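Annex B, item 7. Sequence and structure tokens for protein A, then protein B.
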Amino acid sequence: MMNLLHWRLLVAVAEAGNISRAAERVGITQSGASQAIAQLEAALGFRVFSRERRHVGVTALGGQVIEHARAMLERLDAIRVLADDSQGLSGGRIRLASFPSVISTLLPGLLRDFQRRHPGIELVALEGTDEEVEDWLAAGTVELGVVLNPAPSRAAAVLGHDAWVAVLPASHPLGRRASESGVTLEELAAQPFILATGGCAVNGQRLVEQAGLHLSDLRVTVRDWASACVLVREGMGVALVPESTLPDEQRGLRVMPLVPVIHREFGLVCSDAGKASRPVQALLEGLLCKDGSPGNR
């Protein structure tokens, strides 16, 4: 069964000349993209792409299919702009602020999906610390902000959550125990410590202090989570980072759960200007539908 994703994927592959880059653009895995292309070619009865070692080309018939797919997607965007016009949404702008780790992980898919549904609305993403995001929301500089651990009274739209984990050199004594045993904040605080802030006031040092402890040997402070993991791999100390920021390559590292578990939660919060913005409400309604509310049925 061919659907809109298949056509978007075809156009993306033709433009990128590469399946993995096209898959990233449309928001699916490379294996999912390869499977979708195979399904579509089977349904059509001919090959759309010619595979070479480092490049994906387009066959003669495939080129005609892609022209039709591109025209179809353009018509769909035009229909969506027309729909937005009828609701007074076109020409609107949303300024959305977040701290770095969320901008690079949770937000790209959200913003891409929203802009597909509402091509007439401009989305501007601003990066700052969690404290700067709060200041921008209070001042009305932005309509939406990603807030860390929002209070229930703020009626935040939850984007996701993750847990804090300990990152140790692979040979560290604390890492020799079973993973399910975990590591406590007290144990980490007594070790040579690499502090990564991630541009957030809520970081490893804050968690340690909130537990009534202190870092006995703070070796280095860095902003980037990845930099902390590199220093840990070099044996300079241990670190406490959010699970979602762990590097793909963990060779030389031992990752242990924190005991007891401490979570971070991310929520989208409106400023006063955002509460009165129709484009912002359209974005939030889209989030609710995605989460399985009645609007998604």
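Protein B:
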Amino acid sequence: MTKALVLGGGGMTGIAWEFGVLGGLARAGVGVGDADLVVGTSAGSVVGTVVAAGISLDDAVAAQTAAPDRPAPAVDIAPAIAAFALLADRSRPRAEIIAEIGAMALAAPTGDEQAHVARLAAQLPVADWPDRALRITAVDTDGGRSAVFDRSAGVPLPLAVAASCAVPCVFPPVTIDGRRYMDGGVRSGTNADLAEGAGALLVIAPVGGLIRPLIDREIAATGAARSLVIEPDDAALEAFGPNVLDPSRRAAAVEAGLRQGAALADAVRAVWSDRTL
């Protein structure tokens, strides 16, 4: 039976917290780097690339706590909140709403696309797709069609990650083969259903508390024999602060993740261990 690791979206603090959770688990003797499949959405696409490539989690954690040469200001998240809030409207077809968000993303003054791609590429320790199965999600701005990029898609890894992280109305959509793509979180904060057929499923979801019913439905669709969802606890949510795109919160978020990962080691071991499958 296969093991699948799903890493959800959650901004800059989500990246830091996910690295912290994984690092805390590893330090407690529960590594999940042997996942047969990694699914990454938005922030999770960055973390998933590191995991799938077998890069040291200690290095990833250290990078989140290191002081930058030039502290970056927090990104205004208000336009993204307004866009994602549309998804809560149950009176309209979801596909129609996602198409509207795509139109908003295209129209918003979000800066230079190539600068966004370069910024995301700089966060990746590798430029090529790893051998381990890695699926990265995005959404086509024209009509809202979901996209899943992997090494067979013929799309450069940095472009796939930049597309998955193209938060609507905050960062520019990314052009791939003539089409413009936005954040994979527009479809789902985790896209856990892409792990269909997994025997053991671990979902790490920075926004899990907001979309838990959706996550539960996605997990049910996979048919996984064993599963566990890790959501931020109260301490982690406090560490995130009000703006998940505030880089000054990364150090606090990774420390919260380290504590939470260590505390959940036994629960993860019960799901992930080969002896339980």
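Comment on protein B: The beta strands are 3-7, 37-41, 133-140, 146-149, 174-176, 179-183, 200-204, 226-230.
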